[in-house]
Each structure stands twice: as C-alpha cells, then as structure tokens.
Amino acid sequence: MKTYIEIVFLLLVSAFAKAQEIKSLDTIYANDQKNVALFFPEPIRQGITGNENFVFTYNREKEQYFGLLQAKPGKESNLLVINQNGSIFSYIVKYKERLEKLNYFISLASSIGNEKPLNADAKGQLEPSERIENRTYYYQKFSSYLLDRKQKIGRIKKRNEGVVLSIENIVFDKEELYFVIQIKNKSTLDYDLNFLNFSIQTRQKGKRKSLQRLYQEPLFTYNRPTKIAENETARLVYVMPKFSLSDDRRVILELIEKDGERNLKLKVSHKYINNPN
C-alpha cells in the first residue's frame, strides 16, 4: 500500500509528464546488469520513477550529487529528480539490454523549472530585484559548471614574459555567451591584475584604414582574481549578452597588470564568436 508521500510524488510525476508532452524529454537507458550514474549540479533531495521496473537510488541520509539508475525489462517510464535548491529535472527512462552510456553529467541548464516559484506581483510579473537575483544565481551556477568541464573551443592564447592569457571555451546558453578564460602565471613574480577589458574592434575599409574599438561591460563575472601567484593558474568566466560578428570585426581581450608592464592583448576571430559550443 502506497504512503501519502509516495502518492503525492506519483501525482507530481504524472503532472510533469503531461506538462512536458509539448517539449520532448531526454531519454536515459538502463538495465539490471549495470548501474547508470547520474551526476547533478546540486545534491539530490528527492528522486522517484513512474513504475516499479525502474529503481533510482541515492543517499537519503546525507545529500549527495549523484544517484544510480537500474531497470528491468518492461514499458518505458519517467524519472523525476529534485535538487537541494529546488531545481527539477525530468527524463524518459527505458530498458536497454546493451548500454552505450553509463554516466550522465546533468547541467543546471537542463532543469525544467523550480519547485519554489518566485514571488510575483498582482499582474504575475516578477519584480526587477527578483529577476536580477534569479538571473545572477543562474549565471553563478552555470559558470561553475563550465569551469568543471574539460571542453575547449580551440587554441586561442597570448603570451608575455611568462604570463599566458587564453580563452578555453565560448558557450552559448539562453541569451548569453559565456567566455571561459584562463590566466597562467609561469613567471617567478606574482601577477597583480589591474583590469581585464572586453571590447569589439571594427576595421574600417577604404584608403584610410582605421580601427575602432567599442568596450563591452559583462553582465556577470565569475571567479575573477585580483592576484595570481607565481606558477599558479586562475580560471574565470565572463558572461556577455549574445551577439555575432561580421568578418571585419573581432573581439579583443586586454589584460593589464597593476604597477607592471606584462600586458596582453588577445584577439578572437569572428569565427569563434559565431560558432560557440
């Protein structure tokens, strides 16, 4: 006999399944021979499957970031997971005798919503301060997720006296571009960062060729250092509004040292901007 809590969660599973009919859900395959591991951006608070053919196990006493899925032959079902911060994740789960994938790393961007709706005014619109707070939280979590990844977009770097400035990745998500930046100090002196500027440079055509630069303020910066010790590496993220560039424009990333001359100017082609990960 099912408990009240189990019935409530089954109703939630059914409701979310109906809500997602318009938008197809990702499918996760499992069987009864191997464990399929799901790693989430926040610790798991609740997890439940739609029928008994599928079992999702996780630490119920001490919240952890991963859970294990197993399945028996039968009809497909769905999996509903709620993280510690209220983020909701929903997937179709199917039995498959031979598994091609045993580990799934779930990003915050794949969340279908939050169980705690944000406060809204009488017209159902979020207050400006609430929109900013929610957006900042998302930027922070997604930036942290990107720093944990090993994905790279290409070889984009500049060196000067033991200091190396590089862009590891450019990722498009929702309405923003995320620039994953690395500053490596291979010298024997600490590097005090004065500023790291982001600008778009346009090359004027014609007989009198000239360069015009327009500085851009990031929407959000994550993990930006003020000092990089000798033989240390700093990795940070700049979040910029989505944009694209014509072939006569490029991004300039300018790193300036405080009370020093180890300055770098990194040029990024429009091809990288227009084809992010």
Summarize the structure.
The protein is of the alpha+beta class and 277 residues long. The protein has three helices and 19 strands.
Quaternary state of this entry equals: single chain
Total number of helices: 3
> What do the pLDDT scores average to?
82
User: How many whole angstroms does the radius of gyration measure?
Assistant: 23 Å
Alpha-beta classification:
alpha+beta
Unreliable residue stretches:
17-23, 118-124
Give a structural overview.
The protein has 277 residues and is α+β, with helices and mostly antiparallel strands. 15% of the residues lie in helices and 43% in strands. The protein is built from three helices and 19 strands. Strands 1, 3, 6, 7 and 9 form a five-stranded mixed beta sheet that branches. Strands 10-11-12-17-15 form a five-stranded antiparallel beta sheet, covered by helices on one side. Strands 13, 14, 16, 18 and 19 form a five-stranded antiparallel beta sheet that branches. The relative contact order is 0.12.
